[in-house]
């Protein structure tokens, strides 16, 4: 009899413990950063964002493959955006929602009205990036945390051979490929 009472009490307490954070997040409108920007766009333009399935798994794989260089990847895509979107209003909406600590690094607007906003935020030895890209009928929002030191190490392998040769031969003077003749 006592185990039934304990189980009967544990179930509601367990559900409350699990549901409380979800309810608080929903009531708070998403806080700041990625969730707040996506929620603000959804509310203002009457659209629904598609969040990429298994993004947590993809983010984990990105972290492993970059040796910690990239983590915390979030992606939302909004398609079928109807009507005119005022660039200044859109910029203001993102600016209000992005939150403290984020600084806009780039605001690029094309002649067609397409817009890209890139924000950065220091995260200790890491850097947060929030990219909001709007074209005529869709908006993409991406947030990621990067370790600049790891990325610099990893990017070295993708440099064009000309740059690698030039960087290492800069002090050796001019060189000539063995296959060329003058």
Biggest β-sheet description: 6 strands, antiparallel
Strand arrangement within the widest β-sheet reads: 1-2-6-5-4-3
Strand composition percent: 25-35%
Number of domain units: 1
The residue-averaged pLDDT reads: 77
Structural class: alpha+beta
Overall form: globular
Helix-strand string = HHEHEHEEEEHH
Give the count of helical stretches.
6
Parts with pLDDT < 50 across at least 5 consecutive residues: 13-30, 170-182
Helix content: 40-55%
Terminal-residue CA separation: 97 Å
Strand count:
6
Radius of gyration, Cα only, in angstroms?
24 Å
Structure report:
With 182 residues, the protein is of the alpha+beta class. The chain has one domain (31-161). 43% of the residues lie in helices and 25% in strands. The chain contains six helices and six strands, in the order H-H-E-H-E-H-E-E-E-E-H-H. The protein has helices spanning 2-27, 34-45, 55-65, 87-98, 148-155, 161-169, and strands spanning 50-51, 70-78, 103-109, 115-123, 126-135, 138-146. It has a six-stranded antiparallel β-sheet, with helices on both faces. The longest helix is centred in the N-terminal third of the chain and has 26 residues, at 2-27.
């Amino acid at each position: 009899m006592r185990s039934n009472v304990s189980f009967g009490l544990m179930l509601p307490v367990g559900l409350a413990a699990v549901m409380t954070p979800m309810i608080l997040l929903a009531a708070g409108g998403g806080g700041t950063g990625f969730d707040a920007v996506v929620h603000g766009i959804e509310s203002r333009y009457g659209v629904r964002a598609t969040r990429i399935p298994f993004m947590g798994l993809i983010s984990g794989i990105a972290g492993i493959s970059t040796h910690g260089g990239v983590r915390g990847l979030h992606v939302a895509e909004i398609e079928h955006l109807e009507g005119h979107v005022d660039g200044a209003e859109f910029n203001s909406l993102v600016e209000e929602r992005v939150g403290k600590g984020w600084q806009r690094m780039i605001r690029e607007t094309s002649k067609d009205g397409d817009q890209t906003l890139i924000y950065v935020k220091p995260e200790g030895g890491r850097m947060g990036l929030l990219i909001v890209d709007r074209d005529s009928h869709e908006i993409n929002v991406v947030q990621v945390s990067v370790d600049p030191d790891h990325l610099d190490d990893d990017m070295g392998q993708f440099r064009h051979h000309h740059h690698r040769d030039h960087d290492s031969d800069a002090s050796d003077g001019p060189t000539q490929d063995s296959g060329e003749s003058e």
